[in-house]
Every structure is written in structure tokens, then in C-alpha cells.
Amino acid sequence: MMPLEEEVRLLSRVELLEPLSEEDLRGLLRRSSDTHLEAGETFFTPEDTSERLFILKRGRVRIYRTSAGRELTLADIEPGTIFGEMALTAQRLRGSYAQAMEPSILISMSRADLEHIIEENPQVGTRLVHLLSERLRSYESRLEDLTLKEIPARLANLILLLCEGEGVMTRQDIKIPRHYTHERLGTMIGANREAVTRAFTRLQDEGAVELRRRRIHIRDIEALRRLAGRPTPQDIPRDISP
Questions:
Q1: Does residue 241 sit within a domain?
Q2: Where does a domain end: 97, 120, 146?
Q3: How far apart are CA 177 and CA 180, in angstroms?
Q4: What Rg, from alpha-carbon coordinates, does the chain have?
């Protein structure tokens, strides 16, 4: 069991819940029961019609869909993230699966819980709008990748996102500490394993990345940005006006 005060600190770092006092957070925890998940356990399926929001307290969760026997990963959820299925927040899990990638603990929140929180703390409603707009921009960017970019560019952009989210600086480069198989990367960019292998070889040949001990290392982040189609500092026009 996670100590209560540790749970309160975790929830206080959830962007949507930051305006709540510690007593409010304790009340939310008292009204919510923990769900313990084993690695590989699926806790939401396309047939689930309930309206719930989840907060991941510990572990890691993957949201994905299937089509023609292939999987497309929509999101990797880290501890302290709120996600779920609820018309009030314009979020949609429906049609998707939610699966624990490692032993995980989460709590769920009903529509009534969220409505009560917003009524008592209007700032939560403001943060909800901000959170949804940020996620919408992220989804639009991902859709642009899937529809307009070639697989090497999609893979380069994904590695940049992984670098921003979990990269660790070493003496020589930036390391992604978590192991990602080519098959798993493929589910995240809409490509099969063979295509990811070819794309990764391209990124290696360009000197942008390297695979060492089954971990991705970013050797040249500016080269990776160029391959992803992102602007680099030298690509940004400078103001030369007096």
C-alpha cells in the first residue's frame, strides 16, 4: 500500500487537480478505491460503456486500438496522469483498449465526482479546458505525422518525444532508458516491425541514433530533428532589423 501522504503528493502533481487543497485530495482518495493490475492486464475494452476517469498512481499503461489485426498505440500513460472515458471532458477511450504494461495501481473517478470538484473549485474547470486543448494539439500533430510523413520521419519524431519525456543525459549522448522493441515502436507510428527496422537503420546511417544494449541512444539531436521534419536553430529566421 502507498502511504496516504505519498498518494496526496502524487495527486497534487496531477495538473487537473493542482488547485485542490490537501484535504480535498484526501477526500477524493477516501471516496476512491485502488485497482491493482498485473503486467499485461487489460482493464478497459471497446465494449466498456462506463463513464470513468482514471488516475494512474503507479506503473505504466498503454492505450491502443486494433485494425485488421494490427495494433496502434494511442498513448503511453505515466504515473500522475489523468485519462479516461467521459463526455464531460471530451475524452474518448471508447473503441480502445487500456492495458497495464507493468504492475500498476490506479483509481477511478465518476462523472459525479468530477462535476462536484468543478462546482467546488472552478479553477479545475479552467485547467480542464487547458488540458484538453494541449491534448488536442498533440493528437493533431500525431495525425499529421501518420498521414503526411514517411516512416523514417515518424520514427525520428517519436524518438524525440521519448527523449523529451524520459531521456537521460550521459557523458556522450542522450539515452532512452526503457527498452522499446521495433514491434512496439511500430504500434506507436502505424508501421510494421520490418518498416521500423529499415527506418531505424536510416536514422543510424545519418548518425542521429544508435542502439546499444537494446537501448536507443541519441547521438545527434539536431540531425534527428531534421529527419523528423522539425525546425532546427539554424532553420529559424533571425531578426536582422536594426
A1: no
A2: 146
A3: 9
A4: 20
Q: What is the pTM of this model?
A: 0.72
Q: Which of 9-23, 177-191, 192-206 has the lowest mean pLDDT?
A: 9-23
Catalogue the long-range contacts made by 6-11 (C-beta closer than 8 Å, 24 or more residues apart). 7/57, 10/57, 10/79, 10/80, 11/55, 11/80
Q: Which residue has the cell 557523458?
A: 171
Same domain, 26 and 136: yes
Residue 231 has which C-alpha cell? Answer: 525546425
Residues in the chain: 242
What tens digit of pLDDT does each residue of 125-139 get?
A: 888 777 777 776 776
In whole angstroms, what is the distance from residue 187 CA to residue 38 CA?
21
- CATH number for position 175: 1.10.10.10
Element (H, E) at 216: strand 215-218
In this structure, are 201 and 214 located in the same domain? yes
Domain around 189: 149-235
